[in-house]
Amino acid sequence: MYSTKHIAIFIFTIFSLFSCILADTNKNIPLVVITWDYKDATEKAWDVLHKEGKSALDAIEASCSLCEEMQCRKTVGFGGSPDESGETTLDAMIMDGYNY
């Protein structure tokens, strides 16, 4: 029996190979990679990229904003984990290295 980890690695490998093949045809494929299991935030980023046709920067902003609103894992957004001075702060920064 295959574990979830093995299946995820297999799917990632196939997707990576498929992406490399399509890269040769100069077609852009939207891709959303998220490090935690924030399903709603991932879907929001995908919708911004795929359905709305906006930029990756727009997708990141929309996804993070949704997670703040939903208080993902109870550590993001109002009521989340406090900073080093014991206060809950909402601060974020997105850098677009493409322009530099």
From TrEMBL:
Endpoints of the signal sequence: 1-23
Pfam family, one: Asparaginase_2
Keywords: Signal
Alphabetized PROSITE patterns for the sequence: PROKAR_LIPOPROTEIN (PS51257)
Alphabetized InterPro entries for the sequence: Ntn_hydrolases_N (IPR029055), Peptidase_T2 (IPR000246)
GO molecular function terms listed in the Swiss-Prot or TrEMBL record: hydrolase activity, acting on carbon-nitrogen (but not peptide) bonds, in linear amides
Stated family: Belongs to the Ntn-hydrolase family.
Name of the protein described by the UniProt record: N(4)-(Beta-N-acetylglucosaminyl)-L-asparaginase
Source species: Vespula squamosa (Southern yellow jacket)
